[in-house]
Amino acid sequence: MTVELLCRKIGMTQIFEESGEAIPVTVLDASPNLVIQKKSEEKDGYTALQLGFGDRRPSGADKAQQGHFKKAGVAPKRYLAESRISAEDAEAYEVGQEIKVEIFEKGQRVDVIGNSKGRGTAGVIKRHGFAVKRRTHGTHENFRHGGAIGAGSYPGRVFKGMKMSGRMGNERITTLNLEVARVDAERGLLFVNGAVPGHDNAIVRVRKTIKADRNS
């Protein structure tokens, strides 16, 4: 368990290494996160940090939210999210403390968690990569439809999980083991090698990768 820093996806670009190699990266706005609340095993049944990210007008928060932020001694934040950590790691943090992009370093492996782009209702060709039917030998009208979805009299039902048309995207995605290409502490930017889930300006979480921990 590790801190999951809230970041805003700015977009993709490329950076150049000293060798001249061009590396595709995703730029993340990793402005400081504030610790809004600490949850403990004794009081809440689990240990976690509630982090706040993004500025918000005080008038945009209701009285309950204003009281919650006032108790922490911080200005209202637009986004709140919990980050599960161990009790030992929680001792290093205090309410109101800033967590900056410096918790990551160049060459480190991270996981990025976010929601994929929503594509609306899609058919089986676009959603699942089904092949388009041949436009010959009696095939007509249903060129982009799926085939049979079940047997005849037995079992007489469609099995759960059958690939069919429906809503595509807007699902929680975790991209594992990405490399940090650059950390710009002065501007609060994090450059991650490769693509991450979500549209531009989407909120994502970045944490130290769990994949490397399992392999170590």
Sequence-ordered SSE layout with sheet pairings:
Layout: E1 5-16, E2 22-29, E3 33-39, H1 41-44, E4 48-55, H2 63-72, E5 77-84, H3 87-90, E6 98-99, E7 109-115, E8 120-122, H4 124-128, E9 166-168, E10 172-184, E11 189-193, E12 203-208, H5 210-215
**Which CATH architecture of the largest domain would you pick?**
Beta Barrel
Per CATH, what is the topology of the largest domain?
Elongation Factor Tu (Ef-tu), domain 3
Order of helices and strands: EEEHEHEHEEEHEEEEH
Largest sheet: 6 strands, antiparallel, barrel
Low-confidence stretches: none
Count every helix, treating DSSP H or I runs of 4 or more residues as helices: 5
Strand content range: 35-45%
Mean pLDDT: 93
CATH homolog superfamily of the largest domain: Translation factors
C-alpha-based Rg, rounded: 23 Å
N-to-C span: 15 Å
Can you count the beta strands?
Answer: 12
Helix vs. strand class = mainly beta
Shape: extended
- How many independent structural domains? 3
Strand order of the largest sheet: 1-2-11-10-7-12
Helix content: 10-25%
CATH class of the largest domain: Mainly Beta
